[in-house]
Specification:
single chain, 158 residues, three-stranded antiparallel beta sheet, two-stranded parallel sheet, 3 helices, 23% helix, globular
Length: 158
């Protein structure tokens, strides 16, 4: 099963949408220093001299509070996405439980899989059966697994 996932996960439309979501800014450009509170070098005069400010109430440093730090995306940085079981899919922007993660794929800042395939890494913690149920592949990966099983069956018959 893992060999099928490793060979085909990067072509799964569901996994591709995760890669695009990771590469998106997902609001990271809206908070402090972003579109709503652009980082501006405003000169303010005080009794101590000239100070700089602006930018979402943080003095223009771009830090901001949690509400200013974007959403589920990777802020255009890239990283890793998890290929997970769909028997109990996590909420948007959340990570699946370790026993539901088949493995991970590496994504660049543009949402493309590194080396074209994402360099799949098996998680080692996946369980076929949990309290949430039995194996739940995406329709795409299920089709690829059935194809592979038929190939194996035909190979054994000949």
């Amino acid at each position: 099963m893992h060999s099928v996932i490793a060979s085909n996960a990067h072509s799964d439309p569901w996994v591709q949408s995760q890669a695009q979501a990771l590469a998106s800014s997902s609001g990271s450009n809206l908070g402090s220093g972003g579109a709503f509170f652009p980082q501006q070098r405003k000169r303010r005069h005080s009794k101590k001299g000239i100070e700089y400010g602006g930018g979402g109430g943080t003095g223009g440093d771009g830090a901001g509070g949690a509400s200013s730090q974007g959403g589920a995306g990777g802020g255009g940085q890239g990283g890793f996405i998890h290929v997970s079981d769909q028997r109990a899919p996590p909420d948007y922007g959340r990570t699946a439980w370790p026993e539901d993660i088949f493995g991970s794929l590496e994504v660049d800042a543009q949402g493309r899989f590194v080396d074209g395939t994402g360099n799949y890494q098996n998680s080692g913690s996946y369980r076929v059966l949990t309290r949430e149920g039995c194996l739940g592949l995406s329709p795409f990966l299920r089709e690829k697994l059935v194809e592979r099983l038929r190939e194996e069956e035909n190979r054994l018959k000949s």
